[in-house]
Amino acid sequence: MWSDNETTEDFLGFKIHADLLLDVIKDETVLPVTIGVFGDWGSGKSSILKIIHEELKGKDDDSLKDDTLVLYFNGWVFEGYDDAKAALLESIIEQFGKHKQLKNKVKDETIKLLKSVNWMRILGLSFKKVILPTVAAYFTGGLSLVPFLLQEFSQFNAKDLSEKLTSDNAEDFLKDIIRKKGVDETSLVRDFRNDFKTMMDKSKIKRLVVMIDDLDRCTPDRIIENLEAVKLFLNVDKTAFIIGADPRIVRRAIEFRYKTDDIKNSIDSDSRNKRIVSDYLEKLIQVPYNLPKLSDREVETYMTLLFCKKEIEPESFNKILVEFYKNRTNRYGAFGLGDIQDILSDGDKNKLSKSVSLIASLSPIITDGLNGNPRQIKRFLNTFTLRKRLVDIANIPNFRIDILIKLMVLEYSELALFQKIYEWQVSQNGEPKELNELETLVQEHKKEDIKKRFSSDWASDKLIKWLTIEPKLSGTDLRDYFWISRDQLEKSISGSSLIPVHIRNLCKSLLEAGSGSILTNTIETEVIGKLDEKNLENLLYLLEKELLKAPENGDIHKVFIELMSKKVNCIDSYKRIIRQVDNTKIPFSLRHDFNSAAKQNPDIESIYPIFNPQSQIRKALNSKTK
Asked: If we measure between CA atoms, which residue out of 447, 451, 463, 455 comes closest to residue 409?
């Protein structure tokens, strides 16, 4: 099995990206600068940030390398804090205050800056978030979020203070205290920037490098809070911020925060929203750097090194790494078994020969199926390893691992077609004639015939490549392969581990919305025009799973109905699930939702005949249409 954590081990040749960004950071004429390392979920952003961090940091926490202070900040770790913006600012300042070589030089400035951050926290939090914890801390003798605010309370006796803080005018009382202190957001920001610049000058360091990772795992509010913290440092000398994130999620967060009522109601709202998001990012990120998708050869190299690390001893593997780093100048070829023949012992060659030869033949379809994504490749291989172990434990004779991998690629990349093959083979003792027809038509280059006989899905370039590549599946009894993959309806690879976090969160939001304007707004802002074909398929898969488990839950049906009414391509998905679930459990009250949605999308009526004639929902729809 392979760990899914970020690493400084560079199996992807990512050091070239890290070196490029290091070159920018070390150029003093470029500073201050904010760099965005952009890529999909699992594309390797964190690993690049780790490589940069290792290169810049000193030999221990109390030393500086090249007079550079480098800080690593994980935005997701602070997701549960009351104010992510303050958490980031405090972390940066505290690193100065604790550093052995810096703390005596900047002691006064760190005290002033931390005080400014606390006031920012007060001004940025809601009444309930400030008052209630502060009062609780005051009366119980505990520590407060803002101890110096409690000093202002000390002029009142406990009885009077309690009355003021529980009265209808409690919020005005707090605001009056803040006003008397002469605190406002404009002066705080100005003073913070001035004090921070003074601290940088006194520290005598050449540069401060702050890396913010996992930003795309945070909620929209937390993403914006972190970005607002970075904005405080714009144009502060000697600073470099590196932000690792999926740009689609960051854009969505900015749009979510700054979508005003005026813009929502504007005829040209979509283009205006895009301009706002683009302007925000362009002002914040001076150097956007997009990680490229891995090529077939890079995927082959990556998987080769993963298997080498798993199968052979560390000493031998280190020799392989040395050889790999030597060969990285060959940007267009794969690093495979032939490149390490002279290094390996006979025993190691035997361990690797089957795995590496399999990788070479299947890397093209794995690249397509998993979008060249390192994290998805690792998780795919972990699932493959578990299933291979199950094959060994079950002692299945004549089982071909290459067929298992080929089917698994389809399971993740085109789940609906994987399920279709499952349905075919169930009724034909494991050997579906349809696969034989498909492979024959592909061999004869009859793409149009595939569309007519099956559907355009089977005629896509991706599926043509999948059908063409060895091993062929026709003439093979597939029952054992689907038995090994029998979790495909309840917990397939795509459902259990490979679907991005933001898609799972979106599914949860849709299901929790229930119905009405919240559901409609979520679909309009988070689904329509926002999801590519792959992520829409992932979302529908998660919704299908929920409906399979609870066909009686009207809210799940309403999500599908609303999606269909907005002409999101999911009618076939819904029909497929309706055929599998107990229709008698489907609430007949959904009739109103269906008929209302059909006025916006008449194609919805094609679903009605799919319902079981004896079900209440079918009878209710029939009574309406007669």
From this structure: 463
Cα separation, 328 vs 324, whole angstroms = 6
- Using DSSP's 3-state secondary structure scheme, residue 460 falls into coil
Q: Is 567 inside a domain boundary?
A: yes
- The boundaries of the domain holding residue 188 are 106-203
Inside any domain, residue 574:
yes
The lowest-confidence range among 7-16, 65-74, 89-98, 299-308 is 7-16
Cα separation, 567 vs 604, in Å, equals 9
Is 118 a member of any domain? yes
In the chain, how many domains are there? Answer: 2
Q: What is the CA angle 473-474-475, rounded to 5? A: 115
Rounded to whole angstroms, how far apart are CA atoms 352 and 390? 20
d(CA 497, CA 181): 52
- The domain boundary, picked from 203, 219, 244, lies at 203
| 330 found inside a domain | no
The number of beta carbons lying within 10 Å of the beta carbon of residue 407 is: 20
Q: Residue 406: is its pLDDT beyond 50?
A: yes
Predicted TM-score (pTM) of this structure? 0.63
Please check the confidence at residue 264 and state whether its pLDDT lies above 50: no
pLDDT tens by residue, 72-104? 887 776 555 556 677 778 888 888 888 888 888
* pLDDT tens-place string over residues 104-156: 888 888 888 888 877 776 665 444 444 444 554 444 444 444 455 556 666 66
Domain boundary among 142, 168, 203: 203
**How far is residue 323 from each of residues 304, 311, 331, measured CA to CA in Å?**
13, 17, 14
